[in-house]
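[Meeting: bench + compute handoff]

Bench side (C.D.) handed over the final construct sequence. Compute side (W.E.) agreed to return the predicted structure before the next meeting so the bench team could plan truncations. Sequence as handed over:
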Amino acid sequence: MTRRRTPEELRSHRWFGASDMRGSAHHSRAAQMGYSRADYEGKPVIAIINTWSDINQCHAHFRQRAEEVRRGILQAGGFPLEMPAIALAEVFQKPTTMMYRNLLAMETEELLRSYPVDGAVLMGGCDKTTPALLMGAISMNLPAIFMPAGPMLRGDWRGQFLGSGSDVWKYWAEKRAGNLTDEQWHAIEDGIARSPGHCMTMGTASTMTSAAEALGFTLPGAVSIPAADSRHARMAADTGRRIVDMVWEDLKPRDFVTAAAVDNAITTVLALGGSTNAVVHMVAIARRAGVPLSIDRFDALARRTPLVANIRPAGKYLMEDFYYAGGLRALLAEINDLLDLDAKTVNGRTLRDNIAGAEIFNRDVILPRDKALVAQDSLAVLRGNLAPDGAVIKPAAAEPHLWRHTGPAVVFADYNDLAARIDDPDLAVTKDSVLVLQSAGPKGAPGMPEWGQLPIPKKILAQGVRDMVRISDARMSGTAYGACVLHVAPESFVGGPLALVRDGDLIELDIPARKLNLNVSDAELARRRAEWKRPPPRYERGFGALYQQHITQADQGCDFDFLEGTAPTPEPEIH
């Protein structure tokens, strides 16, 4: 039986249990907040880390969900304190939310370190909030549980279901090709995002919340519930109740975020056809827990994992359909032989316990193994002289005839160059060309934005072509698709081989062989390297300067070098 801590062993007792002058100051300020000693003394103090903001409509319901979490904490005998943290609002935040993932991770760690907190409920969901919150909580290593935002409802246009991102890319290509009017496009804009919640495709948001559940960070079944469903509110209260017991049990993130749990999360991402962004995020999360994860582990697990979730962009359906079909518990049960079922989770039970009895109610949404969208390789890691430290691609999102392809490079020096020339009728490009974007990586963009799904030139769209090989050191939205080679490392901005590509160079992509090569002689590459000049830093002050000095490359998780690993976070002195 798990030993339960005593009130005197609570971390918050250092603040509220003292009878000296400092203790008196803490008591008086709590009284100023409207609380008596009976409200908090001897009770676990639970931080509700809330990433609500007016600018982040994915989390628009978090004001209410925080109250439901609070209710659960109070019912279980805890003392809740809501603490706002920076909202990383995908789409609105520029140059990219990825630049601020580590800022939210630091803020989470420091909020938990510097205040009288015994445990935390982490409220997130929109793309980078999930990995950021988990990273900060793992580093602080206090009892913590993740409460996912949940996906928004299906989009709607002319009787068709629309999916975040995926249908944006699809219909935008048609608009550029002249097949959609402005009025039709505006109707799509008005109908594609019609409730609170994160993207309802298998984009980065659904990918990372699903990874969090497979890691053991959520209550079973929590991530599949649509944000607007009343069951989501009940899950929030359940989450609040559970964190109180976690504090008494002293169940901390590093107790369950093990190598086996990380493998479970990666396998889940692969079975879902999840976002390539998971590669960067999972490497960072794992290393915060002391698990030495490399990108090659994704490739190894991809070779055995079928893609059984028929969800856009790889498949047909949306997250709302996935929930009605049985949700993540049902999918995990379908692939249970590929998982370590003895892995522990936040509810104190094993993954085996949590998926016991799960049923699949729609076999067209969660496919049988023998009818998987792809039997294996829903993600591949490429290497070669163009990506000595690796690059990633989603084979299932690319047209199969491009899996082996050699073509001449059309090079864009940066995103502005791309935007200026991509639709130029005089651009020397054919359907067999390989589009190359430079200066889009962690330092170069900066922040490694989701620019990796380079637009197909308008004159090529007019030929009926909807996919081409595209290569960059950028990321790509999990809602996107195409033969897009991403995360090329090292990036061009620091002198990686991508910086040396010139128009007309032949580039060879061979996904089955996991190769990405620039067919240029070593002597010529050496000559180009000698001529290459390091660009000046993008920032000279503020967080941007800190970011540039300490960000690691994509294959290392894009974490700050001083935040990796399990060095202890020192407790503050209480004076």
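W.E. noted at the follow-up: The chain has a mean pLDDT of 96. C.D. will use this when planning the next construct.
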